[in-house]
Amino acid sequence: MGLPQTAEEFDLHARPVLPWCTIATGGIEAFGNILTILVFIKLGFPEIIHISYTALAVSDLGCVLSIFGFGAHALVEGSSLPAAAKTSILLVSVAGTLSRATSLITAWISLERCVGVAFPTRAMLLITRRITIAVLVAIFAITTTPIVVNFIAVAIVRDPNPEINFIAANVN
Fold first, then answer.
1. pTM (2 decimals)?
2. Res. 164 pLDDT band, cuts 50 70 90
3. Pick from 92, 72, 69, 86: nearest CA to 169
4. Which of 123, 120, 141 is nearest to 131 (CA)?
5. Mean pLDDT of 46-54
6. Under DSSP, is residue 155 helix (H, G, I), strand (E, B) or coil?
7. What cellular component GO annotations does this protein have (predicted)?
8. pLDDT at 45
9. What is the mean pLDDT of residues 83-104?
10. Which of 133, 63, 132 is nearest to 102 (CA)?
11. Rounded CA gap, 34 and 41, in Å?
């Protein structure tokens, strides 16, 4: 048996392995993020950058746990990852939302470091604890608002017609 020649053959061979890969990597990453959060909490945030690193670990933990749940859902359902995506669309959108938050927090950390290098004497005046916390809260609020609206919309509008609403078609 040689290497798969077409995308369909590759998909056929990779399907059983992908949920296990997402569960394995998700578990390892979740453990690492939890350790990171605990270490920064134990340190007590002596520096401003530790606040940003903790927010990054929290955001990444949420993203990783939703992907971990996605892989577990695929195993429970006994289906491939694309088929599981249809039935757990909100879980996938949580991962996408939190990955945006992770990206924005990473950009904020980069900006903090750049300001510290460009203006070493004024960096403490430009980026304070209050500004850092306000920016991080704004990032979480802006990125998670769409997913909260999605959860509310799905809870309110449950059309049982499977031709109109594919979530209703895959619930049972």
1. 0.75
2. low
3. 86
4. 123
5. 92
6. helix
7. membrane
8. 87
9. 75
10. 63
11. 11
Q: Is 131 inside any structural domain? A: yes
What is the number of other CB atoms lying within 10 angstroms of the CB of residue 107?
11
Residue 1, domain member (yes or no) = no
pLDDT-based confidence at 41, cuts 50/70/90? Answer: very high
- Tokens linked to 81: 């990852």
Region 115-120: what's the mean pLDDT?
89
Domain contains 2? no
| Type of residue found at 64 | V
> Residue 38 — φ and ψ, nearest 5°?
-65, -40
Residue 57 tokens, joined: 């670990």
Both tokens of 111, joined, read: 């900006």
- pLDDT tens, residue by residue, 128-147: 999 999 999 999 999 988 87
The two three-digit tokens of residue 172, written as one number: 């049972």
Q: What is the CATH number of the domain that holds 124?
A: 1.20.1070.10
Q: Is 70 exposed, middle or buried (0-12, 13-18, 19+ CB in 10 A)?
A: buried
Which residues lie below 8 Å from residue 71, measured CB to CB, with a gap of 6+?
A: 18, 19, 20, 21, 22, 23, 26, 81
CA distance 104 to 95: 14
Residue 25 identity: T
